[in-house]
Amino acid sequence: MNPRLCLLLALLPLCLHAQTQPTVAQEFDFVMYLIGNGMKEEALVATHRTPLGGDSINFLKGYAHYSAQMLDTASSYFAHIAPSSPLFSEGSFYGTISESHLGHYDRALNLLHRLPEENAQERNLALFETAGIKLLQRDMQTFDSLFPLIDTSDYRLNAEVRDLLHLRTNLGSHKAKRPWVAGACSAVLPGLGKVYAGKLGEGLSAFLITGGLMATTAENYVHHGATHWMTLATGLLSAVFYVGNIYGSVATARVSLNTFNQRHDLQILYDIHIPVRAHYRR
Question: What Å distances lie between residue 268 and 131, 246, 262, CA to CA?
């Protein structure tokens, strides 16, 4: 057989393989396409099968886990992107959002401090993110010092800047219901602590039930004496409901405070997330 023909036949499979092998950009775009179309599980599988390596695969795995709400894993991948990589800033911002959702505010701030200062838009975005995290930490003094430094002319921040300022006002003016005050109020008058915590209906119910049992105990005491079983039974029930009313008032005040804080924290997290998505729209 002709030697040239033999060489051609030997090289043909390699040529075909080279033509069908996806490029780095194609592989990257394919995984991002899966994530963008809600195929999160498929994207996670694709990141484990892709031949990509280094910073590209760290970013893809981080972003895929981030999209699947696996934030702890996402943050670890974003943290391994080298500062020299073109994906470093984007990975750092998404790592910041991940750590903030996990409540690791100091880690989130450290990621922002690593960012290069050459890009004015990214520097402004980092300032906005820092202010948002300080609000999550309830560090109002630092928030107030940072907020005037943010360039609000950036259209990507307009709505979120207003929201953040509104949330800061709400948090600063909110009069938290102190659990110990609620407990003390209910110790003085059953149900009063729940009224203080904003639960008027529950407070009235506690007052009527506990007050009714106390009144029945007093009546049994007058008619039957202190050692009569009816007096003892209603007295025991009165004590149980009285103590339960105090504990319930403390718990209600705590739940009210936690609900208020959680609602505002979710809104802050949303507001610091949206500008990052807008800046790195894919």
Answer: 10, 34, 10
